[in-house]
Write a structure and sequence with these properties.
A hairpin with a 5-residue loop joins strand 2 and strand 3. The strands form 2 sheets. Strands 3-2-1-4-5 form a 5-stranded mixed β-sheet. It is an alpha/beta fold. The chain contains 12 helices and 7 strands.
C-alpha cells in the first residue's frame, strides 16, 4: 500500500490528482484534519493501516464507485476492512467539512449571493432542485424507495449559488417522495415559513414603486411561494412574455443542474446504484457534497476538479454549453 501511494505521488503526469480528484496539497490538508479521527492505535500484534491510506481508499471509492471487492485487489486489504474504513472516513469528512455547506446568516450575505445573479435574474438568491441517488433495492423495503423512474433511490435536495456551490443539502428522503414533498419536509422550508432565513426585505426592481421579494428559483415540482419562483406551466408561443420569462428562469436554474452534474462526474459513486443501507448511503452522498464545495473553493484543486469549459456558463443572459 505504501509503495503504491509513493509511486502515485512520484508520477510526473499528475496521476495522483486523478486518483483522488484533488491536488497533493489539498490531500495533505484534508489528511491533517481527518487524520486524528481515523488513525488507529498500533499494537504489538500487528501494524495499523495508516490514516493516509484510509483516506485514499475512501476517496478512491467515492471517485470510482468500485465495489469493495474490486478495491480489495488494488489496496490489498479485505473488503470487510474497506467497508469499515469507508464508513469511518465518510463520518470524519462530514464532521471536519461541515462548515463547507452553510446558509448565509444575514441580509448582507444574501445580497452578496443576489449580486452574482443580478445580471441574469434580479432578486434571485439561488437555485433549488432535487437529485435521485440510485441504490440497490433493500430487503423488505416494499415500494418506499421506488421513484417515478421505477428504480430505488434516496433524494438529495440542494440549494446552489452562482458559483455552483451548495448552500444547503438535505439527504436521505425516500425516493417515492416528490421534490416538492422533500422540500416541505426540509429544514430550509421550515426556516422559510418561520421567516428565520433573514432574507432581504422586498424592494423595487427598478424605478417602479412595487416591492418585489427576493426568491429561490425552482422547477414546477416545487410549490409557488412568495420566495420561490417557478416557470409558467404549459407550452407558450415563441416571443410571448411567459416563454421569455421561462427561458430566463431556466438560464439561472442551470447552476443547480451543473452542480449535480459535476459532482456526479467527479464522484462516480453517485452514477451507480449504491450497495449500502439508506443511512450509510446518505453519509456517502453528504461526504461527496461537502468535498464538492471544498474542492470548488480550493485554489489548488478547483482547476483539477472542474476545469475551464467543464461547466455551462451564462454570458449576457445566454447559456453557453460546456460540451462535456
Amino acid at each position: 500500500m505504501e509503495e503504491i501511494f509513493s509511486d502515485l505521488l512520484a508520477e510526473p503526469s499528475n496521476q495522483f490528482q486523478g486518483f483522488v480528484r484533488m491536488s497533493a496539497a489539498d490531500f495533505e490538508l484534508l489528511l491533517s484534519r481527518v487524520g486524528p479521527l481515523i488513525e488507529k492505535q498500533k499494537t504489538k500484534f500487528r501494524e495499523t493501516i495508516p490514516a493516509k491510506i484510509r483516506l485514499a481508499v475512501t476517496l478512491r471509492y467515492l471517485a470510482t464507485g468500485d465495489s469493495y471487492r474490486s478495491l480489495h485487489y488494488l489496496f490489498k486489504m479485505s473488503h470487510q476492512v474497506i467497508s469499515n474504513i469507508v464508513k469511518e472516513c465518510c463520518a470524519a469528512l462530514i464532521y471536519v467539512l461541515k462548515d463547507m455547506i452553510k446558509l448565509p446568516e444575514n441580509e448582507n450575505e444574501w445580497l452578496q449571493k443576489e449580486s452574482e445573479f443580478k445580471d441574469t435574474f434580479p432578486h434571485c438568491l439561488g437555485a433549488i432542485d432535487g437529485k435521485h441517488v440510485a441504490m440497490v433495492s433493500q430487503i423488505h423495503s416494499g415500494s418506499e424507495y421506488i421513484n417515478y423512474k421505477r428504480s430505488f433511490s434516496i433524494v438529495l435536495m440542494a440549494l446552489v449559488d452562482r458559483n455552483f456551490c451548495f448552500m444547503f443539502c438535505d439527504v436521505g428522503n425516500k425516493g417515492r417522495i416528490s421534490d416538492g414533498g422533500v422540500f416541505r419536509d426540509s429544514v430550509l422550508f421550515e426556516k422559510l415559513q418561520t421567516n428565520s432565513l433573514h432574507l432581504p426585505q422586498p424592494k423595487p426592481l427598478s424605478d417602479d414603486d412595487v416591492n418585489v421579494p427576493y426568491v429561490f428559483v425552482a422547477d414546477n415540482a416545487f410549490p409557488l411561494h412568495p420566495n420561490i419562483m417557478k416557470p409558467f406551466p404549459g407550452e407558450h408561443s415563441e416571443g410571448s412574455t411567459q416563454r421569455n420569462f421561462n427561458r430566463k428562469l431556466s438560464s439561472v436554474r442551470i447552476v443547480v443542474e451543473n452542480a449535480f452534474g459535476v459532482m456526479s462526474a467527479r464522484f462516480r459513486v453517485l452514477k451507480k446504484p449504491i450497495t449500502l443501507q439508506p443511512n450509510k448511503a446518505s453519509k456517502v452522498v453528504m461526504a461527496c457534497a461537502l468535498l464538492h464545495n471544498f474542492l470548488r473553493k480550493s485554489c489548488n484543486s478547483r482547476s483539477i476538479y472542474s476545469p475551464s469549459g467543464y461547466i455551462d456558463t451564462i454570458v449576457n443572459g445566454e447559456i453557453i454549453n460546456s460540451g462535456t
